[in-house]
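Form 12-C: Joint structure prediction
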Amino acid sequence: MGTWSRRGFLVRSAAGISAAAAGPLLAFGADPSKPADMAIARWTGNKDLTAKELQKAATQLTESALAGLGGLGRFVRKGDKVWVKPNIGWDRAPELAANCNPDVVATVVRLCFEAGAKVVKVGDNPCDLAAKTYVTSGIPAAVRPLGAEVVFLDRSRFRETAIKGERVKTLPVYPEILDCDLVINIAVAKHHGLANATLCMKNYMGVIEKRNTFHQAMPVCVADLTRFMKPRIAILDAVRILKAHGPKGGNPADVAIKTTVAAGIDLVALDALGAEILGKKPTDIPIIVKGQEVGLGKIDYRSLAPKEIAVS
Amino acid sequence: MTRKGRLWTAARTRRLVQVAFLVLFAGLVLAARPQPGGETSHLVEVFFHFDPLILIATWLSAHALYAGALLALVTIVLTLVVGRVFCGWICPLGTIHAAAGRFLRWVWPERKHADHWSRWQLAKYYVLIAMLVMAVLGTHWVCVFDPLVFLYRTTTTALLPATQWAVESGSTAVFQWDPGVGPARLTAVTEPVYGFLRDNVFVIPKQGFLGGGLIFGLFFVTLLLNRYRARFWCRYLCPLGALLGVFAWRPLMRRAVREENCNRCDLCGMACHGAAVRPVSNPSGEAGAEERVGNPSHWIASECLGCFNCTDACRRDALGFTVSLPGRKAAPVRSVDLSKRGTLGAILGGLAALALFRTTPQSRGHTFHPRLMRPPGSRPEREFLARCTGCGLCMKVCPTGGLQPAWTEAGLEGLWTPRLVPQIGYCDYNCSLCGQVCPTQAIAELELDEKQKTRIGLAAFDITRCIPYAYARDCMVCEEHCPIPDKAIYFLEVEIQDRSGGKKTMKQPHVDPDKCIGCGVCENVCPYKDRPGIRVSSANESRHPDNQPILPEGSPY
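Section 2 - Result
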């Protein structure tokens, strides 16, 4: 439309300010006293966790990973409207690892409010029937008591938006998401039949429609969309991972418990870590390779000196 | 029409009751919708359980009785005591016809005229006889025209989707235009209203049904006929009305005329909904011309809807309903006299109609229609057609909107019965609602794990269209959505040559016929929206051993 809305201006200036802030932070990334740009929290305690203990562990891991990043206050300002975008793709229970862990999502929501967010909205564009998928995922039940607004994306309220990508020119994007001051991407690490793995970058496919043609050129389309979304923070949920028959899964034998949560500002790096957790070489995953190629981040995540945090 | 000096009348009470039942019916239609938990209340089918036509026809055709439908005995007992009050007070379609008649006469007035019994009212009895003959021989066609079924189907496939279209497109237009005065936006009003209706009434976005317009057309024509004769459908056509008419042959509650008050003005005859008064000379045969009209004593109990319009219309207190008990002199009742010739004709007509229904190769079992994919749990076709009423309750609760009324796929015998159209909506893996709500159990109620193993068809790739085969590009959306935990769609990596002769590795999808249950999600999500590159056909369906071309791997024995 050519004109900038007040909110759009705020979003853009916030993005500029945080980019400017990220510069010096990068330079001091190796300094353990400074917040890192990537933090990996791994569970080192008792391996045989009961369901209850796993829930607690997921919460602790998420808190630690975000603390390692310097806390959500680095991204959320007082009065912000935050969209938390977990993967709620499939009508599968949390134990099947087809969706994000509800405790990871709930912890992020709680920390958003603690960082001063005024409104926290949680929503995804599921592949299965939304009403059922949301309930089965356990995420609404975990975040509603914290005060988050659970949003169902209405098919007729997407708006054709300019993406200006290499391959994707326009897409129907959900305007309510773009309207928020910050989008927090929470992805679960899963196998994917076509893309080999689905991680943080591919998670953005939940803010759009008309995505089934993406499969014909997945890496470039996902890279286009990720650039459009201007990611500032993402969280990789590897509490449970789906090793095979992804992204939908359904067989408990395909699930592995890795009790790891990572957070960072570089989605390519997070995805590379996720690929390794899935037992794959990051360079075998075309989306990750393409991400580095177009300058979205670094495959060699170790060069970011990620903060390793042991949680028990 | 209020009787002089009386503010409240029986007919007004009746109208209140009618509206209450209509609202209840509409509420039950709206309550029948996909529930996130997967369970739904059996209450949504309760109207059908009170319907004696469905009870009797299912018993005749499928030799099946089910506990819930015994509620229909209540309706039968009610009719034996007080006549066809179900038609006059309860039936929601009857209420709509009564209201349509009033409305049509208001916009298009006519002079009051005598509206007496016509022999054409016998038509419904002959139709009922013909259709019950068909039922005995194993088809449920009579229920397709049951008034409750008729209204349910019309509401589900036409009235609600039309309303939904209006609300969705209207509110979307406002949303995109976003008009307002200063900070006040019109969307502040329209969006919450739209959101409420979307979440609580429509549930499935942009829902539509194949041929809903034609189903509405039939309904609309029957509404218009009310201008020609009040409650045309109820008088001349309704098979349930005819059945209740049989039970109302000699009810205990009867209309009595106080001859000393009656001046043969025929106001009662003009107001009568059912045309239950017979314009014949009195039986003694000594009647003059003035006896030929307006003699209210020629009352046919089977045709009376118990609407109390006559007692309301009478200015001389000449009419009343009395209860005839043993030992008391019963008020006279006249019968509808079915002729032997007509009855025989109806029986032969029913036989002929069924014979013609069954002349198709499909009904002889030689062939199976590839696109007749029945909901999971459906009984074998012959038994299915002996039970299915075509009410549309399964279509109403289907969470993807994929269950659609059949037009030609199941033959004339299977008109408006449900079939899955995967391009519109697939069979959701974690849902078994259709079997839960089916009022006649044409779709058997399956436990979820059983349903997840029930095959309703088999998917097959059209490699002239499927993108990896036809255009050598990646796709695999179908594989991603396949709900079978171990994937009925798998892929093989093959090396192909591209246009410039270079080698390229591709993932090409295949279907495992031992795993595919025919849910159709692959066809639904295929990027082609005109003719998908993978399509499901009814082959391999669990319910028909003769329609299983693929020998399972591993011996079942």
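Section 3 - Comments
The longest helix of chain A spans residues 6-27. The interface with chain B takes residues 91, 127-129, 131-132, 134-136, 152, 154-157, 192-194, 212-213, 215-218, 245, 247-251, 254 of chain A (CB under 8 Å).
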